[in-house]
Amino acid sequence: VQLVESGGGLVQSGGSLTLSCAASGFALGNFGTSWYRQAPGKERELVADITSFGNTKQYADSVKGRFTISRDNAKNTVYLQMNILKPQDTAVYYCYAHGGPLGFWGQGTQVTVSS
To answer: According to the model, what pLDDT value does residue 100 have?
Structure first.
């Protein structure tokens, strides 16, 4: 059972990145999936969440209108499209699959936004 995030990197303010969260060893489509982020010295915070079928999405106020969460269950992958990035978006971004008593974390991918 594994979740692997990818797509992070260094981008200028105003730029875009798309993060991917790929699952192996289980069907990600059976789980709701969230993106969290943690900046240095701060607590991990929820960024976005999508239900297993993708019909309901939720976003933190700080990213509404800029980030879009989506999923492709056939590819066992969840995405986070991030637009109009700001320096305050700089953090390690984590994928979290959750369902009932189960929860799986990925290892994280670094996103750095320069001003």
So the answer is: 87
